[in-house]
Design brief:
283 residues; alpha+beta; Alpha-Beta Plaits; Enolase-like, domain 1; five-stranded antiparallel β-sheet; 13 strands; 25% helix; DNA-binding; RAD52 motif-containing protein 1; Nucleotide-bd_a/b_plait_sf
């Protein structure tokens, strides 16, 4: 059966592994490096998180590892469970299972994560982006406050429209993004203003790139070959604020999302299949 890999934060239980009975000798940083080295051989990893055991469990560590692909996570579990890997004693590896029905809104990956995922499946030269429009929407008109004093450059704001092109699959996906940064005329100097302008412009491009990738689905066939599916923007959950929707009406026909929530991981909704082990509570 083909597997769909979206450009979203993986929260599914079948993409999550729990690794425990990790030695207390190495530091958490050293364990993180060792775990990443071993498990990245099975597929692209979203995250590797190492935690100290609860006091009742004795010294040592456990880890939560997230893959983008459920098939990769399953292969890693089969290959690594009850193996010594990088330590003298074997570790235990289990796939996560939901212990309650929970529906989480899919969180989009940021632009750097999207590029990492695209590079892994399409290749570094397998896709490209093309900026269609980069518009300065900054508030630069002079205004007066209650005392009649002029105030200038109230905010720096950019709109970006671009498209992601995957030529080998004859696929194009449009995306758009808006970035906004307030300015304090009394504190901002010329250099600070230019830096904020450059940063805001770059952020608008990053948001547009992420938005374009949200409309694409990577299809991993049983043969291992890759296909790409395009989802029109109306099929994607709209999480825009009222202000952004107003901007959308003013700018044009593109749509964009605000990623203020950031990328999160939901660990509290998972349990792991092992009768002799209980996952320590996460703060």
């Amino acid at each position: 059966m083909a597997e769909l890999v979206p450009f979203a934060v993986p929260t599914e239980s079948d993409k999550t592994l729990l690794v425990w009975e990790l030695s207390s000798g190495p530091t958490a940083e050293a364990l993180h490096h060792s775990l990443f080295t071993v498990f990245s051989q099975f597929g692209l990893l979203y995250s590797v998180r190492v935690f100290p055991n609860a006091a009742v469990a004795g010294p040592g560590f456990y880890a939560v590892i997230k893959f983008y692909s459920a098939k990769d996570a399953h292969r890693a579990q089969k290959a690594c469970d009850q193996k010594q890997l990088f330590q003298k004693s074997p570790v235990k590896v289990r796939l996560g299972t939901r212990h309650k029905v929970v529906q989480h809104q899919a969180l989009p990956l940021n632009s750097s994560r999207c590029q990492e995922l695209a590079n892994y499946y399409f290749g570094f030269n397998g896709w490209s982006k093309r900026i269609l429009e980069l518009q300065d929407l900054s508030d630069t008109e002079e205004r007066g406050n209650e005392n009649g004093m002029p105030l200038q450059k109230q905010s720096v704001k950019f709109f970006c429209a671009l498209e992601v092109v995957v030529p080998s699959h004859e696929c194009r996906s449009p995306g758009a993004g808006v970035a906004w940064e307030p300015l304090d005329q009394l504190e901002e100097g010329p250099l600070s203003f230019l830096m904020k302008r450059k940063t805001t412009q770059k952020l608008a491009i990053q948001k547009a790139l992420s938005d374009a990738f949200q409309k694409l689905l990577i299809v991993v066939l049983e043969s291992g070959k890759i296909a790409v599916a395009y989802r029109p923007c109306e099929e994607i959950t709209d999480a825009r604020s009222e202000e952004e929707q107003q901007d959308l009406i003013q700018v044009g026909y593109f749509s964009w999302k605000q990623y203020g929530q950031g990328e999160e991981e939901y660990l509290s909704d998972f349990s792991f299949e092992e009768e002799e082990f209980r996952l320590p509570e996460l703060d």
